[in-house]
Design goal:
The chain is α/β, with parallel strands linked by helices. It contains 5 helices and 6 strands. Strands 1, 2, 3, 4, 5 and 6 form a 6-stranded parallel beta sheet that branches. Helix 1 packs across helix 5. The chain is globular, with a radius of gyration of 15 Å.
């Protein structure tokens, strides 16, 4: 395992994707989009509908199947995992992503976007999905106004510049 970094992210509306691309530039990291095998429709994403796909997934903790895998995960020493906050948590596709790889010896750094929620207990729920040999760094809520310099400052705070 080298010193390579990966920014893996899930985004529906584009906000998390935009932040992930900025972070990948700031960290000089590769980027990977986490996509469900069956894409979400607008109706699936309607959080006001208790029977929408995302409402059901978040209530039952069902993990949607992921369309593609990171083929060379063993090459990365640091993996940033980005997602929008849903119901004060990470979407369950992130649970599935983390549970499908061995992060032993790697550093995992969560980041999230939100229209109004904080990072909440998202990291606390995600951490047990990885092995005890995974090093977790404090996550951050990053919204669209974060500049490359802001992100580089965060990377320095984490000791990952």
């Amino acid at each position: 395992m080298g010193n390579k970094k990966l920014v893996a992210y899930f985004s529906c509306g584009g906000d998390t994707g935009a932040v992930a691309k900025q972070l990948a530039r700031a960290a000089q990291a590769d980027i990977f989009q986490i996509k469900p095998k069956v894409p979400y429709t607008d109706a699936d994403l309607d959080w006001r509908d208790k029977n929408s796909r995302t409402s059901v997934e978040m209530r039952t903790l069902e993990r949607p199947e992921i369309a593609e895998r990171v083929e060379n995960m063993e090459e990365y020493s640091t993996v940033f995992v980005g997602f929008p906050i849903w119901w004060y948590l990470a979407p369950t596709i992130i649970n599935g992503f983390l549970a499908s790889y061995d992060f032993s010896g790697k550093t995992v750094v969560p980041f999230a976007t939100s229209g109004g929620s904080e990072l909440g207990k998202a990291a606390a729920v995600l951490k047990p999905l990885c092995s005890a040999e995974t090093q977790w760094k404090d996550g951050k809520l990053i919204n669209g106004d974060a500049t490359i310099d802001d992100l580089r400052d965060w990377l320095k705070e984490l000791g990952l510049e």
